[in-house]
Write a structure and sequence with these properties.
By secondary structure, this protein is mostly helical. It folds into two domains: about 150 residues, Up-down Bundle (Four Helix Bundle (Hemerythrin (Met), subunit A)); about 160 residues, M75 peptidase, HXXE motif (A middle domain of Talin 1), CATH 1.20.1420. Helix content is about 60%, strand content about 0%. α2 runs parallel beside α10 and α3 runs antiparallel to α7. The radius of gyration is 22 Å and the shape is globular. Pfam families: Peptidase_M75 (PF09375).
């Protein structure tokens, strides 16, 4: 029976027993195994499934807004499309943290979000497609068969906010708009596939809720908890590495503002805040603090405080990335770097060790 794991997620369980035999026979020191089933159920039913449903519903509203824009071509319909796009970014960013399970099958994740585009190859593909303006390319089915760079949120962001987007007003049924409508429809369909997989009662949700021989994902409670720990740690790392350090690594390194995600639509910090909101929601709603032994509950309070500090800091950053990286503003980014590192250490080292698990990482993106 094949067990599916995220290719970027290499998590090693380290038992705290003194012998290999003892590691096999006993649960990790500190892990409250009795709490695992309820934690897994809440993670699935109160966080993951609602998160994907919200994303799919938002994508459906976005598709409708794009249809209205293409039909009317007014400033009002463009503003509505942009506002709905911003909402979809938020809902996606909340659930984006779950980079395991159905969303990584058949490259669904990359179909929804192609990022980072380090050499601008994806941008050039989008620009070339718009310049070509072949009506045959402006359907959901056509887009679904093309490069991932042409399918997802970053492509639609360029349609709505990139060079030439002003032409969306005053034109009805332009190729650029119809392409954007097709991209929105494709995102809606991709999100729907993930929702369908998670909603199937005897599918992945049952596999996650019931670790053991009958599960396709987790042989036991330890593997299940390790997966949740992995979502938290890799999600926090993603905030630091892929959302912040992708364009700002500190005051001694030249910033690269055009590498910031969603910089055109000024959604960089909104997306990061939603990533953190998603992580905190998983941590709190799943009740992951319940996995800690009674004498280690102070770690949970510290993690709560770290999340609060980050979620207080991010909204204070200037949405214009060129301004955010200016000398006058860099101190805020440095604070964010330090706070994000603190969160990673707290979850991985302190919480992980307290429940007898340790997370190790192997990212294959070359950084």
């Amino acid at each position: 029976m094949m067990r599916l794991w995220h290719p970027l997620l290499c998590l090693t369980l380290i038992g705290l027993a003194t012998s290999a035999a003892a590691q096999t026979a006993t649960p990790p020191a500190g892990l409250n195994e009795d709490a695992v089933p309820a934690v897994m159920q809440r993670a699935v039913d109160e966080v993951i499934r609602p998160g994907y449903r919200n994303m799919q519903q938002s994508a459906a509203r976005l598709t409708t807004a794009m249809k209205d824009l293409c039909s009317d071509g007014t400033q009002q319909t463009l503003d509505k499309a942009k506002s709905t796009f911003d909402d979809t970014i938020r809902y996606w960013s909340i659930i984006e943290i779950v980079q395991t399970g159905p969303v990584i099958q058949d490259n669904l994740f990359e179909h929804i979000l192609f990022y980072p585009d380090r050499k601008g190859v994806g941008l050039k593909q989008v620009q070339a497609l718009i310049a070509k303006a072949d009506p045959n390319d402006a359907t959901v089915d056509a887009i679904a068969g093309k490069s991932v760079a042409l399918q997802g949120l970053t492509a639609l962001e360029y349609v709505l906010y990139g060079n030439g987007s002003d032409d969306l007003v005053g034109q009805k049924g332009s190729f650029r708009c119809l392409y954007g409508e097709a991209v929105a429809g494709n995102i809606q369909r991709e999100a729907g596939e993930v929702v369908a997989a998670w909603e199937k009662p005897d599918g992945v949700q049952a596999s996650w809720k019931h670790p053991g021989p009958q599960s396709n994902d987790f042989m036991d409670n330890k593997e299940a908890v390790t997966a949740l720990l992995g979502i938290l740690v890799h999600g926090a790392e993603n905030v630091r590495d892929q959302r912040l350090e992708q364009f700002y690594k500190g005051k001694d390194t030249a910033p690269r503002p055009r590498m910031a995600i969603y910089w055109r639509s000024k959604n960089t910090w909104k997306s990061m805040a939603a990533n953190l909101e998603g992580l905190r929601t998983l941590w709190q709603k799943a009740g992951m603090a319940e996995l800690l032994p009674p004498d280690k509950q102070s770690i949970a309070a510290s993690i709560d405080e770290d999340f609060k500090s980050l979620l207080d800091s991010v909204p204070k950053l200037n949405p214009d990335i060129d301004v955010a990286i200016s000398d006058a503003e860099k101190a805020k980014l440095d604070t964010l770097l330090a706070e994000s590192r603190d969160l990673i250490t707290r979850i991985s080292d302190e919480y992980g060790a307290a429940i007898g698990l340790s997370a190790g990482f192997s990212f294959s993106d070359g950084d």
